[in-house]
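Review form for a predicted model. The reviewer records the input and the model, then writes brief findings.
Reviewer: anonymous (R2)
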Amino acid sequence: MQYETLLFQVADGVATMTLNRPQSLNAFSAQMQRDMAVVIAQIAEDPAVRAVILTGAGRAFCAGGDIGEMAEAAQPVPLAGRNKLHRMLTTVLMPLVRLEKPVIAAVNGAAIGAGMNLALAADITLVADTATFSQIFVKVGLVPDTGGLYLLTRLIGLNRAKELCFTGRMLGAREALELGLVNRVVPAQDLMPAALALARELADGATAAIGLTKSLLNMAPTASLEELAEFESYALAIVLSTEDHREGIRAFRERRKPQFRGC
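Model under review:
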């Protein structure tokens, strides 16, 4: 299927979703929101997809919201604006965070505003050494969107999140790594090979166990010990019944690498 603002392919258990508006630095538009919503829902339902890469075409990852659409939206109709942002959160950001498959962001360039927060919504974030980040919202009189307030405070704590949001200053790849915003910085030419190698490693893993572990980890910062223990017991009951678990036990006993099938 062809998408107006995305490139999408699946190979060797890995889905690669590429933001494809390079002429506008992959600015996040209403059409991109619709395309991403369809693709993420498709990924969630496709057992052939066992890991996901999110990246950008051209020299940017995503330069934030589409300025032209923002100008049109800057009208005294608060409810319409609220509804538009709510659709983006409920159809793109939340499904991406909750997807029970590992998501790797391969940040190839500027990740600004909504683009930065899309990258942070991934489970593992690899960045080119030339990448830049900014919570630029305050520079145009906005509050952070695309889940930024939720994601930032979890990743780097309240005070550091306030500093980035209040100033909107630009971060280089190394500072983003030092702050704990990203997992790894690699030379720009090595970014996609590194992302693909990691994605294939995860795609060869025990998919159900990885997906449920992701859900539990997302829940952990706000759950009580009692709540987390309850959910852990349900998750364990599920994975104990999987073929991947049985294969893992066989492989351990036979001292060989397990051949997981994702079921």
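Findings: The first strand starts at residue 6 and ends at 11.
Further findings: The two ends are 26 Å apart (CA to CA).
Recommendation: see findings above.
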